[in-house]
Amino acid sequence: MSDPVRTAAPDGFAERLVGALTVREMTLADCGRVSEIRVRGWQHAYRGLMPDSYLDGLDVAADAERRRARFAEGDGSVVNLVAERDGRVLGWAAHGPYRDGDAAAPDAELYALYVDPAHLGGGIGRGLLAASVERCPGYPRMLLWVLRHNTSARRFYERAGFRPDGAEEPFEVDGTAVSEVRYAATLDG
């Protein structure tokens, strides 16, 4: 397991922080809390972008069960990170090789980044993103997918140096078409 990364507060956020933010690799014991953050994050961020029936049907316990199974079966290619402050996990990110069907791609992909909705704006997402990028040496770029109409997430990634690269993919959620836009950033090193 890698050493935890202590991150500094982003400019302008110091007054909202209590305690240092620590980013570390996720453990099996974190799966329940990560599922809670993921489900509440979806319900908060995607309300109005996806059908309420789908969002309201998300189940933390079922998600945690799937997450524990995936975590136990993992081959090490996916890196799961959690951010904690004062001993409480407040955010989660996952990254690894870019998924392009069966084709191998040279890029990294940020698969997920979620922050407990009660703690948005406190530098947790920035800390997780920075730690994910830092753990991707040898990759020329990091790619990620974001909902086209999720303007707050798009602004977040754009402030971090990511830009849309022209790729777009639709998918269906409870009979509603939802579109994702791919973002890319060049990685140093």
Order of helix and strand elements from N to C terminus = EEHHHEEEHEHEE
- List the uncertain runs: 1-18
Our estimate of the beta-strand percent is: 25-35%
Helix/strand structural class: alpha+beta
Could you estimate the helical fraction of the residues in percent?
Answer: 25-40%
Quaternary status of these chains?
single chain
Query: What is the arithmetic mean of pLDDT?
Result: 88
Note the gap between the termini: 22 Å
Describe the sheet with the most strands: 8 strands, mixed
Rg, rounded, reads 16 Å
- Number of DSSP strand runs: 8
Number of helices: 5
Describe this protein's structure:
The chain is an alpha+beta fold. It has 5 helices and 8 strands. It has helices at residues 31-45, 52-56, 60-73, 124-134, 151-159; strands at residues 5-7, 21-25, 79-85, 88-97, 108-115, 141-147, 163-173, 176-186. Strands 1-2-3-4-5-6-8-7 form an 8-stranded mixed β-sheet. Helix 1 (31-45) crosses helix 3 (60-73). It is globular. The chain starts with a strand and ends with a strand. Residues 1-18 have low confidence and may be disordered.
